[in-house]
């Protein structure tokens, strides 16, 4: 639910969803930090692609956005 063209992060914020993943070392919840694509705090799995920065990724109809497990998805991408 959101407007096509706005960022995925904006749509999630509008829905009250603030936690996007867990920190690698601590497992603590992570959300937006820089909101301009520089910090990687907002990494999520988008359409099966892990480590997508949702603060700069435009929302499109039919997207599947999932919280990712920190280590598993990073290893998968490498
Ligand atoms: S919040 Fe920093 S890259 Fe998305």
Shape: globular
What is the CA-CA span between the terminal residues?
31 Å
Instruction: Find the CATH topology.
Output: Ubiquitin-like (UB roll)
Mean pLDDT, rounded to whole units?
A: 87
The order of strands across the largest sheet is 4-3-5
Rounded to an integer, what's the Rg over CA atoms?
A: 12 Å
CATH architecture: Roll
Low-confidence stretches: none
Largest beta-sheet characterization: 3 strands, antiparallel
Which strand-content bin applies to the residues? 15-25%
| SSE class | alpha+beta
Description:
It is a single chain. About 20% of the residues lie in helices and about 20% in strands. It is of the alpha+beta class. The chain has a single domain, classed as Ubiquitin-like (UB roll) (Roll), CATH 3.10.20. A hairpin with a 2-residue loop joins strand 3 and strand 4 (about 50-55). It is globular. The mean pLDDT is about 85. FE2/S2 (inorganic) cluster (FES) binds near residues 40, 42 and 53.
């Amino acid at each position: 639910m959101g407007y096509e063209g706005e960022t995925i992060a904006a749509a999630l914020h509008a829905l009250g969803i603030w936690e996007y993943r867990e920190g690698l070392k601590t497992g603590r919840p992570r959300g937006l930090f820089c909101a301009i694509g520089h910090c990687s705090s907002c990494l999520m799995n988008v359409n099966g692609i892990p480590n997508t920065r949702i603060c700069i990724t435009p929302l499109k109809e039919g997207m599947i956005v999932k919280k990712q497990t920190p280590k598993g998805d990073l290893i998968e991408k490498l």
